[in-house]
Amino acid sequence: MDEAGSAWASLSAQLRLEVAQVHGGAGNLVELSAANLQDFDSSALSLLLGAARHCAAAGIALRIDGAPPSLVELARVYGVQELLQLA
Q1: Are 18 and 49 in contact (CB under 8 A)?
Q2: Rounded to whole angstroms, how far apart are CA atoms 40 and 45?
Q3: Do residues 55 and 83 lie in contact, with contact meaning Cβ atoms separated by under 8 Å?
Q4: How far apart, in Å, do the first and last CA atoms of the chain sit?
Q5: How many CB atoms lie within 10 A of CB 15?
Q6: What is the reported pLDDT for 2?
Q7: pLDDT one-digit tens code per residue, 5-19
Q8: Quick count: other Cβ atoms within 10 Å of Cβ 64?
Q9: Cα–Cα distance between 36 and 1 in angstroms, integer?
Q10: CA separation, residue 31 to residues 1, 3, 27, 34, 64 (Å)
C-alpha cells in the first residue's frame, strides 16, 4: 500500500470512530486540525476531501481548523477551497 493509501486507511478508521462518537453524543460536527501540516501536496487535499465526503454521508459537518496558508492556496489552485471550507 502506498503512503497516501496507508494514511487514508488510518484516517478513515479514526474518522469512523469520531463520527460514531458524534452521533452517540447527538452532535453534528467533526473538527480536524490542520495546524501541524507543514510538508504536503495534493494527496493531503485528497485525504481531506475524503474525510469531508465521509462526514457528509453521515450527515455530519466537517470543520478543518488551523490550515496553513500554503494549504489554503493549494486548495484554491485545485478549486476545492470552498468544498473544504478553508478560509
Answers
A1: no
A2: 9
A3: no
A4: 33
A5: 21
A6: 63
A7: 666 667 677 777 777
A8: 22
A9: 24
A10: 27, 23, 11, 10, 6
> What is the rounded CA–CA span in Å between residue 8 and residue 51?
9
Encode pLDDT of 45-73 as tens digits.
988 898 888 888 888 888 999 999 999 99
Cell numbers representing residue 22 in the block: 458524534
Q: Which amino acid is at 68?
A: P
Backbone angles phi, psi at 80, to 5 degrees: -120, 10
How many Cα neighbours within 13 Å face the side chain of 59? 4
Q: How confident is the model at residue 3 (pLDDT cuts 50, 70, 90)?
A: low
Cross-strand bridge partners of residue 70: none
pLDDT score recorded for residue 80: 95
Residue 60 cell numbers, joined: 455530519
- Helix locations, the chain, DSSP H: 3-24, 42-57, 69-78, 81-84
